[in-house]
C-alpha cells in the first residue's frame, strides 16, 4: 500500500474576528487562547471547515470561516489604499501572487499582500492565478471529452480530473497512446453550497488523507485539490461506521467535492500526486 506524508505548509492566514484557538477540531474542545482579530497565523494543515494553525508558538485549531480566503492575481495589478480606482497605490502586486482576502466591498476586495493591507479590484483575482478565460469553455458543460482535447489540457501524470459544478459531475480521464484524453469514469457528485462554493480553476493533486472529520461527522478517502478542498466520500458518523448523508448531485458541501465512497476511494488509490484538476 502506498504511504503518503502529511502535507505541511509555510502559508499564512489572518483572523477576521476574535477567534478561539482550540485543542482539537471541534467546538466543544478546550480553548487554548483567544486570537485577536487581524492576527497572522501559520497554517499547518487544513480539512474543509477547520485549519490547524500555529499562533504565538501554540498549535491548535481554528474554524475556517474566521480566517482569510486565499486568492491569486492573474495579472499585474495595483494594491490601492481605498476601494476606488483614484485612490493612492500602495504597491504593485505581480501576476500569480498570493493574497489573503479579508472582506469584499462592492467590486473591491480588501486583501493583505506581503503583510501590507489594501484593496484590489476583485475581477483581477482568481482561485488558481489564471484569468477567467484561460480555456474555451464552450463544450465544458455538454461534451467534456471535446473540452479537454480541444483545449489540449496538460497533466504531469497519465490522468486528468475535471468537475462540472453546474451539472455536478466529476470526470476521470486517462491519456491514450494517441496523446488524447480517454474518458474512464463519469460520476455524480455534490459540490459547495452558494455560501461556501467549490473553488474554480486548474489545480494539481497535493496529497491525501484516509479520513478526516469532527465529533459529528467523518469523510473517507480524501484527495486534496488545494488547501482545505478535497475530493472525498459522502458523510459518515464520527466513528465512520454509518452513512449519515449520502446525497449526491446537489450543492450543499463546505466547498469540497463529495463522491460515492467507492469513487472517492478509486481516486485515493489510483490518482497520483500532481495530477491536473480542472473545475468550473
UniProtKB/TrEMBL annotation:
Signal sequence segment:
none
Q: Which CDD domains match?
A: YkuD_like (cd16913)
Pinpoint the SH3b domain residues: 9-71
Gene Ontology molecular functions: transferase activity
Superkingdom of source:
Bacteria
List the active-site residues.
232 (proton donor/acceptor), 256 (nucleophile)
According to the entry, every stretch annotated as the L,D-TPase catalytic domain falls at 159-280
GO terms for biological process, alphabetical: cell wall organization; peptidoglycan biosynthetic process; regulation of cell shape
Q: Which InterPro entries match?
A: Cell_Wall_Dynamics_Protein (IPR052354), LD_TPept_cat_dom (IPR005490), SH3-like_bac-type (IPR003646), Transpep_catalytic_dom (IPR038063)
Looking up SMART domains in the UniProt record yields: SH3b
Q: In which pathway does it act?
A: Cell wall biogenesis; peptidoglycan biosynthesis
Q: Which UniProt keywords apply?
A: Cell shape, Cell wall biogenesis/degradation, Peptidoglycan synthesis, Transferase
Protein name from the UniProt record: SH3 type 3 domain protein
User: Does Protein biosynthesis appear among the keywords?
Assistant: no
